[in-house]
Amino acid sequence: AHGCALGNGVLFVAEENGHVTKVGLQSPNAYSTVVSGLSYPVSVVLNEAKSVMYIAERTGNRVRRVFLNPDNTESSKEVAVSGIPSAEGLALSKDSSVLYVGQFVYQSGSVWRVPLSASGSVAATINMKIASGLNRPRSLLLSADDTLLYVAEEDAAAGNVRRYELVSGSY
């Protein structure tokens, strides 16, 4: 299992075998596949209403948007972001207008700031990179007021956590 996100009474877990599973919080033995047919899903994030899930597909070089039914099952899915090789690590702004995506690459990883559309795909461009030269950025977290982005890097010797001030642009 890789990344996970808390939904309405369930935990969504990205599984290497191409799907996202939901696990009941009150009954952890109650689990089922929510989304299948993914290409090495590694990170999951939900909007504030818990009605839309974003999934980073590392070998698919994209991020999927999954619309959820009230019972936490898939309603439909589409590609939300394309063109980011080795996508991993996601953080979503409170208003769901911006998705931050880590690029899991050794010593030359990046973080991308992608403005989202309500539906349809956004093709990532080089000017969306806000940080580069990172060592396999794996986990991203936004502060409650969307002004700070924390990026955890994977490193065999010692992992780093970097803090980016999004308003001032100091990294």
Characterization of the model:
With 171 residues, this protein is mostly beta strands. 0% of the residues lie in helices and 54% in strands. The strands form four sheets. Strands 5-6-7-8-12 form a five-stranded mixed β-sheet, with no helix packed on it. Strands 1-2-3-4 form a four-stranded antiparallel β-sheet, with no helix packed on it. The chain has a four-stranded antiparallel β-sheet with strand order 9-10-11-13, with no helix packed on it.
Helical fraction equals under 10%
What is the radius of gyration?
A: 15 Å
DSSP helix count?
0
Residues in β-strands, percent: over 45%
Order of helices and strands: EEEEEEEEEEEEEEEE
Shape: globular
Instruction: Write out the strand line-up for the largest beta sheet, numbering strands in chain order.
Output: 5-6-7-8-12
Assembly of the depicted chains: single chain
What structural category arises from helix and sheet content? mainly beta
Low-confidence stretches: none
The biggest sheet amounts to: 5 strands, mixed
Set down the secondary structure blueprint.
Blueprint lengths: L3 E3 L3 E6 L3 E6 L6 E5 L5 E6 L5 E6 L4 E7 L5 E9 L4 E6 L5 E6 L5 E7 L6 E2 L5 E6 L2 E6 L5 E6 L7 E5 L6
Parallel strand pairs: 8-12
Antiparallel strand pairs: 1-2, 2-3, 3-4, 5-6, 6-7, 7-8, 9-10, 10-11, 11-13, 14-15, 15-16
